[in-house]
Amino acid sequence: RRVGAPRQLSGMSPEVPYEDAQRSRDGSQGDTAFIPGFINHKAGMAGVDQERVKAVVKELTRGGKHHREESRKDANTEESIAKMKEMYASLSATRIREIEGSVRCRIGEMEAQRDLSRVWIHVDMDAFFAACHTLERPELASVPMAVGGMSMISTANYVARKAGVRSAMPGFVAVKLCPALVFVRQDFELYQKYAAMLREVWRVYDNQFDCGSLDEAYLDVTEFMSRTGMDGGEVAAKLRSDVETKTRLTCSAGVAPTRRLAKICSDWNKPNGQFVLERSRDAVISFLSDLPVRKVGGIGKVLEGKLAAFQIRTCGQLRQSLNVIAAVFTPAVSDFLF
Predict the structure, then answer these.
(1) How would you classify the pairing of strands 120-125 and 216-220?
(2) Which of 128, 156, 171, 221 could form a disulfide with 160 if both were Cys (CB 3.0 to 4.6 A apart)?
């Protein structure tokens, strides 16, 4: 359910001070270590010129404090990868057999415990902070807008995203990408007001819902489906309609047999859409086969890089490489990836 190397086992955001952007450039610095985070597409960013984003980030941050810190972290990751590869290459035949046996046993236990009988919905509001401000100031709907300031922005509306502006991006980089960008200050009192309205809607479908944050929630709608005779897709559509009626905000939803899968699915047809994953083992395996590991919540840039070092870039490759995972990653990381 949850889903090379010289030897193969079988089956294989701190703020960025504006002054940093003004420093003299050191041509020897190379690309910033954190560029991949800015070109990892969010909803509404299809068609963004990734090369332009890379060039702007490189130009404005090279030699600055944040670049130096991220480069240090990048070097630490590379050192960690080198040690993992060295450990992997040193495995004895006996140890390999032990690992393979342990993994087979664990997979068997997991298969026996697999439960695809529930129906989960993960609901995720569309550009929530920006959308709340737009309800209060409708003139912002047609202009590129970001919540935050020159140091860092927390989110951007879909107009700004078309220019490559996104959350966790320094504002001075965002302005370079989109000179017409309008900034608004964070207003958590405003966000809390709309979040309270959202919770009223979610409680109708699952009174034990779990809020991941102000703008997202996990709902087990199995009982609601039994009471109403609706299927998962119908429940998601009704929930999204109720949210919009109550708040005038739109949301996206993922329907799946587990929480983690539902969260992945909610990002599939954003904004203002939904995706339903069937409750069958074959459907889940097919869905995960080509899914990039970065799409899984909890896998960030560092872990993505470590997996890539062992030719693991998709969840399908991860599923075929559990022996490698057990051999080179810490027990905590292995538990998460299994």
Answers:
(1) antiparallel
(2) 156
